[in-house]
Each structure stands twice: as structure tokens, then as C-alpha cells.
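It would be a great kindness if you could assist me with a short task in structural biology. The matter concerns a single protein, recorded as an amino acid sequence and a row of C-alpha cells. Kindly check, if you would, that the fold set down in the C-alpha cells agrees with what the sequence suggests. Thank you for your consideration; the sequence and its C-alpha cells are set out here:
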Amino acid sequence: MRYFRLLVALLLFSHALQSQSDSLSRPGLLALPLVFYSPDTRWGFGASGIVTFYTDRNAPGRRSSITFGGAYTQLKQVLFYAPFQVYFNQDRWWFYGELGYYRYVYNFFGIGNAAPVDYLEKYDATYPRFRLSAMRKLGRHSYLGLRYAFDDFKITLRDSTAQLATASITGADGGRVSGIGAVYNLDSRDQLFSPQKGWLIEVLTYTESAATGSEFSYSRFSVDAARYFPVVKKHVLALNAVGVVTTGDAPFHQLAALGGTKRLRGYFDGRFRDKRLLLLQGEYRLPLFWRFGATAFGGAGWVGSEKEAVRSAFVHWNVGAGLRVALDRRQKINLRLDYGFGKGESGFYLTVGEAF
């Protein structure tokens, strides 16, 4: 009950701030105390906000947004982040990415599917992060551009008797990630934060080497596609398919992974990781009353090495359900409360924004 009261307090606070900004045609501001939970962080507390605006009031196009926040968790993790997406010149140019700094406690379960079910080791890492994608519009809904990614990954604490210290695992000592890639994006969604219909597809080919400033040498090709179907009034079926292929000697923390708040909720973040990944997941989203909505979700995913075939024994599934609370009904920004179940694992997630 005390958690329910806390959520209501957050809702009323955000509604008060939203009401102040709604009287203005633009920009918009939503700010609120930040409370979240996941199996990887436990409870986290901080503050967050989002500013939305148009870069050209005469021909506004899509609304740009900058999110900012900071948090501290029960596991003594520190998070500072500022993801952004900005549109210029009637959406002909689209820039999106992230600035951040993280001091995090991670779980490592090994690589591939061979690790015992009960195997777990922890390590501490700190890193600054910079991501930037610069996109040029090609057609009505499609963009093509370049992406740059940078992390300076420092592992500050690990178990001296576990795999990261004793096995030959690329990236076990940390290292600088710096790479560039080409990215194609098709975005026909009717709304950015909680779409009712449309497509969102990203195709990325990415490489790192000494020439790009990286301490590693590898390449990755990935496809991430989401489709949103209106079913009945305000009911939505959302589907998401992901495929990743990695070649070369990638650090373990850059391998494709399942688990966490977005991919197969119910498993720890990074519970399964390897050079290849396949994932299919879906959600049914429906309104309840006032600002409340609900969702039911499920999915299946697989990871494997370059030579490993897809085997049913290594297909990992999840199911779950969740509650949605509209923090900003005008922009459809939702507070997300999910509980997911996997094979022998489960987890509760409290965060802002949809999984996909």
C-alpha cells in the first residue's frame, strides 16, 4: 500500500507540472521525482525530467525531446543520463543519442547457454557514454545516416576466483569502446512514446578497430523491428523482432544479450549473451480507467556462437503482465509496472516508457 501511495504522489506531482506547461503551445516540460525498480538495481531514487519542443514553429514537424536525470540505487549504483532526439528542417534531419555517466554493479552469467542455471558473479564498472546518430531523411518515413558510439569501460571490482578473472574473456579487464556504423531507420509511428500504429525499424552495420579509436576489433550487424497494430478503440498489439550477428573479437559487455527491462522481462539483464541473437516478443496494451492501463506480454529468444545452430533447448521464453499510469496524457508518457516470468526466474520492473 505504501508503494501505491508513492505512485499516486508521483502522478499528482507530474500532473501539476504538466498543467503549467500545457497552457503553453510549446515547449513542454514534465519533471518528477524518480523511483524505479528492477532485479538488476533493486530500488532506485533520483529525479528526472523531459523537455519537448519544436525547432521550427512555422513548420513544426515532429516534436524534439531531451530527457535528463540522475539516480542512486540500493546497490550503490550511480546513474546520470541525458538521451535526446532532435529534428531540424521539417524533419529532414534527425539527431538522436545519449550522454551519460554510470557507476554500476553488473551480473555476469557466462557467455552462451552452457553456464549452470545457478551461476552468477558480480563486477563493478564505471564508464562515461556517448552515442550519436545523425540521420538524413530519404522518404516519407525513412532515414539513413551514421552512428558513433563511445564507452570507456573500467572494471573496478571483480571476483578473483571467477570467470572474468581466471578465464580468457575479451574485455574482462575493461577497455575503450569506440566505433562507427551506418544506420537505416524507418519510422512511421503515429506517436513517439506509446504508439498506436506504424512501424519502427532500425538496421545497423557497425565496426570497431584501432582506426576508430577502439581497443577491440569486431563488427556487428543488427535488425530491430517493431510493429504496432490498432485492434479496437485504444487497444494496441505491439510486436518486436530482433536479430544480431557479431564477428571478430568483441568484448563480453558488447555481446548481444537477453534480459532486463526491454528484452525478455523476467530475466536478469545480460542473463544470456553471445555473438548471435534472435528475439520475438509481443504485448497487448489496453486502457482501464482514468490514467490507468494494462498490458500482457510474452516472448522467446535465443543466443549462440558463430557456429552454433538454433536449438529448442536453448530457446528462452517469458510471459508477464503490467500496469500503466499516464504521467503525461498529451504526449502519452507512461509509468510502467511489469512483472515478468522466465524459466526459473522472475522479476518486477518499475520504470518510465514502454519496453519497445
